[in-house]
Task: structure prediction
Amino acid sequence: MMKRIERVYQRLLGTWQNSSKEEILKTQGSSAKEIAEELMLTRANTSLELNKLVREKRVLKVKSYPVRYLPVEVLEEQLNLQWNTEIEEVLNLSEFEETVNDTVEKSNRNPFELMIGNKGSLKKGVSQAKAAVHYPPNGLHMLLLGPTGSGKTFFANKIYQYSIFEKLIDKNSSFESFNCADYYHNPQLLLAQLFGYVQGAFTGANEDHIGLVEKADGGVLLLDEIHRLTPEGQEMLFYFIDHGYFNRLGETGLKRKANVLIICATTEDPNSSLLETFLRRIPMTIQIPALNQRSVQERIALTKFLFEQEARRVQRTFLVDIDVINALINTIEYGNVGQLQSQIQLVCAQSFLHNLHEKEEISIGIQELPEDILSQWSSSSQNIQRSKEVEELLDVTTKIYPSTQEITNENYEGLNIYEIIEQKVKTLEEQGISEEQIHQYILTDLHLHVKNFINNKTINYNLLKFVDPDISNLTMELKVIAEKNLKVRFDRKFLYYIGMHLDAYFRREKKDKLISQLDIREIITEHKNEYDVVKLFKDKIEQTLRVILPEIEVIYLTMLLVSIETLEEKKKVSVLVVTHGNSTATSMVQVAVELLGAAPIAALDMPLDITPDEIFDKIVTQAKELDNGCGVLMLVDMGSLSMFESKLIEKSGVMIKTIPNVTTSMVLDVVRKINYMDLSLGGIYSSVMKDFLATVHLHQSGRVKAILSICTTGSGTAKKIEQMILGILQYSTEETIEIVTVSSLKFQESIPKLVDQYQVIATVGTRNPKIGVPHITLEDLIEGSGESTLRQIIGLPYENKNQKDQKNTVIKELCQDTLNMHLVYLNPHHLTDLLIDWTKDLQIRLGTTFSNTLILKLVVHTAFSFERVIKKNPLAYNDLWNEENNDLLEAVEGTLSTLEEKLLLNLSDDEKRFIVEVLANE
Result:
């Protein structure tokens, strides 16, 4: 039996397939009511099927009254149009002819020419993309870098369209997109989606499945959030890139071949999240700018384009007030085009509701803007200058016509929010509901649809990253209470500071009382209005979260509220964020400043090739510049940097405190406390360290404590790390703490299970799994700062007396571990002891201190030199000798003589010169 949708289509086709062009243009098609009567169906069911046919591009909707429908097949034949567009709806057929011709003309143009910013902020990126796709024989794979919502997916699609335009790939080739984050916690399924799988490859694999690589053969594959791809996945992918062959998961023997242009996209620093071997195979890196990095002209053009797309959906002309555009382009944070699009969709939908009976034009005024957008725009002094720039480029009212370009927003697939509004309004009107009540119902429903089907609103977008969502929602309610009772309008800082304070309060296990009874009485007396408002806060918090809020917390909140109101300028502790990498520290500081406003904070990014002396000098310079007499809190990513603390204080004359394992959340917490809590350097240090260590124990009770020992190559090195940790713990605590070894190649699969099984208090080793607990690097263990961190985690004071011995023990074990695998004739344990003693003599002779890395290099290299003497296979030094190294050579020869006597072996002059090279190149 024929399906209902086909019955509807065949009836519509039969009605119009023999009609003349004149008749079609005059009548404009059939209505749902007419088709329903002919087929004896309900009008609602007929309308449902017709709209499905519209979405399938088989039928065109003419937005007359009543709405009429025509088969695309008839339009192509009778109107002689080559209709290869994505047009679904038109106001009338005459406009349709013009629209199709215009769209066909545009489709014959270079896709990059239609892209906003192709001659501005995206000019370099477009040039790079063109060069990449034209590179013989099959183009260069690309990596797109840019923040969330900056348009990386859109740009990748333009690369695909350009490749078709240039006839580099077939017009029927596929553009496949895959978000690696969707299967981040299940690497097996991630690889199965990419490469496919055969029946029985894993539980649930009931039949063969083609992967995205295979689907994209001859076309383009976009891998979004590529930093989420596991190391195994990266290795499989670069094998495919190198050879063009792959296997489905569970498949053996058969080699499949595909030719795919791969475009990767990420918001992260690729050097810190992707394997170097993988990056080498993606030679073209393209930076996509954030919205706030683009010119005012480009932002206006983007805003108008997004309004045009909404005008097309609703088939109305929009009259947009200049203040609406001004507010939208000057308040969207983090340069997110996706957020701008969400706000425009919301504004248009609300305007459509308020002008439901307007058939031609809809006015969009500032009253349609969400409250958070209005408050941000009106409260920022920076927006005054920005507004002037917009006013020079736009009229008071901008007329927006329906776009002729294809709507590419995947969030709208299967959803026309304007149809939903129309249908619900009609239903409510039939029930006799007043217009005012209808608007209230629909607006509530509209916000739910926008939240569920479109991108999240920006009202608490950034706060949710760091604060529990329930706390975030509660904080917005508290803001309303405060504004109503204090007759003050608070900006977004209220949300951030009160929200983060409450979140921190409910996460703490112990509530410290730091205020005396005298201070409490003074606060209540001097700030009675704020205290009364916070008591209202207390009632709301207790009612919402079903908790009891102690009086001391009411006092803290009162102090915080007063601080936010006054914002008095005073001298504050400064903050210096120091991390390895090209932009990590800068990114953390930028987020803190954007969220919490100006603060005495600076970032110091350290490229991986910078020397320790250079790091030291840069920190001294920055500390001097930052300090205003209150000291500097240094937040660092590696515990070894804290070893500089005493020397930094001596050299700079600035009081410095150091906290390791810095995160963005930690930076936010520090800035909040500095700006609004009037704490000293010692007070902030103690407070942050307490919160830092408290996160380790949060939600962990009732399980055995464990430290995860992670290495890259397997369990061997992790076992060695385990021995180091046990050597520290046995002198630190009698508490049972298990050391669990994990391979970093499988840690994404293993660690979630271990986190459920154990109370994980720390991770140690070559890779940080970032699971919300402190991570200690191998270097930190060697330096001794790792012991300090471990002792703090288990709640014991750090004893510095054995740090040197511990450091030497770790170096010794690492040397022995390496020599055990390679030496044949010499005893690695005995030789290691002798060589470490020799490096001590050499350091004394040269009047310097060697780094751990240099000690390891010298011990291993010199051990191999003595082994070569026994094998009678010494190295020959054929390079031109640098006379500047004569002093080093003399020191090496002088200190080696004792060792040579003990071993009854003599190194050649050439071997000694190679040892000098190791020293000179460090």
Observations:
- The domain at 705-800 is CATH 3.40.50 (Rossmann fold).
